[in-house]
Design goal:
This is N-acetylmannosamine kinase. This protein is α/β, with parallel strands linked by helices. Helix content is 39%, strand content 23%. The chain has two domains: 122 residues, 2-Layer Sandwich (Nucleotidyltransferase, domain 5), CATH 3.30.420.40; 151 residues, 2-Layer Sandwich (Nucleotidyltransferase, domain 5). It has nine helices and twelve strands. Helix 3 crosses helix 9, helix 5 packs antiparallel against helix 7 and helix 7 crosses helix 8. It is globular and about 55 Å long.
Length: 290
């Protein structure tokens, strides 16, 4: 038995087969412009696995996934998936059970299920991408909150003007670097700015320092919001060598400033990276079918 799994994104739809306890036969197609086109492309993918015995379809999706109602609330980069009984429609379309999970939540679930936080039950998953997102996991299950905004850490304010999403990512770090060098935003990537800092560029070093400080401030605040066993950092920047050392160093400064000596947070980087949403969608499918 296997599960057909999709990760819906604003520019691309990833797909794979979950079989033998791992992701296999991965592929991707551009995100269609209409709902009917998306369904048809997904059906084409299903046809390529016609010799498989499928248990169901697992989907990682943007937006506020309301599992009880079987709809996707809120807004996202795929506007046509919202505010109708999407789960029921797809179950009829595929003639299989279908599950949905928010993409950031799915990534967090993956790390608790089989990844960096598999030995923990109470975990915060912090995604540093273009903006900041995340997931709250309690007793091994996602806590979406009363209004499905649990884990929207990017809306936290770092100061009186700036949210976490506005300042706490490598993308925003590179934007600040570009502005200070009087070139259009996007001229340099976060990876390039880190390299410039390593090479001695003073502006790059200042912006890199701000980035690490913002992330440490966010981690510190989140630790004392839920007091999780572990905080896992995901997103593209999580692959940067030395990231954890820099964050831990700055979090310790904050702990020392408040004279907190009882414990120190367990902070890890994600294990699954680009496969996390797919794996977490499968974990959600099994939870919902149990």
């Amino acid at each position: 038995m296997s599960v057909l799994v999709f990760d819906w994104g604003g520019t691309g739809i990833k797909h794979a087969l979950w079989k033998n306890e791992k992701v296999e036969q991965q592929g991707i197609f551009p995100t269609p412009s209409t709902w009917d086109e998306l369904k048809n492309k997904m059906k084409e993918v299903k046809e390529t696995h016609k010799n498989e015995e499928l248990e169901g379809v697992a989907i990682s999706s943007p937006g506020a996934v309301n599992s009880e109602k079987g709809i996707i609330e809120g807004i996202s980069a795929i506007p046509y998936i919202h505010h109708f009984p999407i789960q029921k429609e797809l179950e009829a379309f595929f003639e299989l059970p279908v599950s949905f999970e928010n993409d950031a939540n799915a990534a967090g679930i993956a790390e608790v299920w089989k990844g960096a936080a598999k030995e923990y039950k109470d975990v915060l998953f912090l995604v540093l991408g273009t903006g900041v997102g995340g997931a709250v996991i309690k007793d091994g299950k996602v806590q979406t909150g009363a209004h499905l905004y649990g884990g929207e850490f990017g809306l936290m304010y770092m100061d009186e003007k700036h949210s976490f999403s506005a300042v706490g990512t490598a993308v925003k770090m590179s934007d600040r670097y570009c502005v200070r060098n009087n070139v259009p935003k996007g001229t340099y990537s976060g990876k390039e700015v880190f390299a410039f800092a390593d090479a001695g560029d003073k502006i790059a070093q200042e912006e890199e320092e701000k980035f690490y400080n913002y992330v440490a401030q966010g981690v510190f605040s989140l630790q004392f919001t839920m007091d999780p066993e572990c905080i896992v950092i995901g997103g593209g920047v999580s692959a940067k060598p030395g990231l954890l050392d820099e964050i831990n160093k700055r979090v310790k400064i904050l702990f020392d400033a408040h004279e907190i000596k009882d414990f120190f947070p367990v902070i890890k980087v994600c294990e699954f990276h680009n496969d996390a949403n797919l794996i977490g969608a499968v974990a959600t499918f099994y939870q919902q079918q149990a």
